[in-house]
TrEMBL record:
Pathway: Energy metabolism; sulfur metabolism; Sulfur metabolism. Gene3D superfamilies: 2.60.40.650, Oxidoreductase, molybdopterin-binding domain. Transmembrane segments: none annotated. This is Sulfite oxidase. PANTHER family: SULFITE OXIDASE, MITOCHONDRIAL (PTHR19372:SF7), SULFITE REDUCTASE (PTHR19372).
């Protein structure tokens, strides 16, 4: 069990209105997909508070207290709060900020992975997900193959239909709690390059370009652009003309000096000819 600084069990709270509003879909869960919860998932019972930071979906629940006041313990009052970039540990005033609830919009490139090697001119498919807190839907997902200089709109994949159970009817106007999957296929690349994803939610919120804009001492709610690097193949080694020295040994040493792995190109920049196209 996770323990607080004072040695007591983990405790957290959400407003009563949030807990009792049907549209918020707050659950007390003892089964998942028809099976009893595993210990890792919170057995014997846990809370699920969708659209809200995970710290409010408490696992391994022992006690539920109805109170007039917000939880006053460590993880509610001195942990999950967001402060301005200039606040440091030596001048933080925990009571000056509210406990976090909704998480911000976020998007991720799942495939290909960071650091893959692709030849210039090859075609690549990109896949990932986007999600927004508070039940807000995803309006758009943008992809850049040149580190944010020009953008392409990804295709948002339709959600899988929910099977009707005892009269349940899927309502398209209900809050959007789940990931929105997206794809962008048949993208021709010039490598090396940096690929970026950002998303926009139904309230017009967009991800910041850099973590510098949202840095905070707790490191929470970091939703800046997700980036991956696509590397170019290592150049072939130059084989020396046969002479007095051993040609194979020279070639091997030359290859070692020129390119040990694709990571040797981690700091490569796209060519000027490539950037001029945009």
């Amino acid at each position: 069990m996770c323990e607080e600084e004072d040695g007591l069990p983990y405790r957290a709270s959400i407003p009563m209105l949030h807990a009792t509003t049907p549209e918020a879909d707050v659950l007390l869960v003892y089964e998942m997909n028809g099976k009893v919860l595993s210990r890792d998932h919170g057995y014997p019972i846990r809370a699920v508070v969708p659209g809200v930071i995970g710290a409010r979906s408490v696992k391994w629940i022992e006690t539920i207290i109805i109170s007039k006041y917000e939880c006053q313990f460590f993880f509610q009052q001195k942990d999950y709060k967001m402060f301005p970039p200039w606040i440091r540990w030596n001048n933080v005033n925990w009571s000056s900020q509210r406990a976090l609830m909704d998480f911000p919009i976020q998007s991720v490139i799942c495939e290909p992975g960071d650091g893959v090697v692709v030849k210039s001119g090859d075609v690549v498919d990109f896949y990932g997900y986007a999600v927004a807190g508070g039940g807000r839907g995803i309006e758009r997902v943008d992809i850049s193959i040149n580190n944010g200089k020009k953008w392409l709109e990804a295709v948002r994949l339709p959600k899988l239909p929910i099977e009707a159970q005892r009269g349940y009817k899927d309502d398209l106007h209900r809050p959007h709690w789940a990931w929105t999957l997206w794809q962008l296929r048949f993208v021709k690349l010039e490598t090396p390059c940096i690929v970026v994803v950002k998303a926009v939610d139904s309230s017009g919120n967009v991800q910041p370009a850099s973590v510098d804009e949202i840095w905070n001492l707790r490191g929470v709610l970091n939703n800046c652009w997700h980036k991956i690097r696509i590397n170019a193949p290592c150049p072939p080694p130059e084989v020396k003309e046969p002479g007095g020295a051993d040609t194979a040994k020279i070639a091997a040493e030359d290859a070692k000096q020129r390119c040990k792995s694709p990571n040797d190109h981690a700091d490569d920049e796209p060519t000027r000819e490539f950037l001029d196209r945009f």
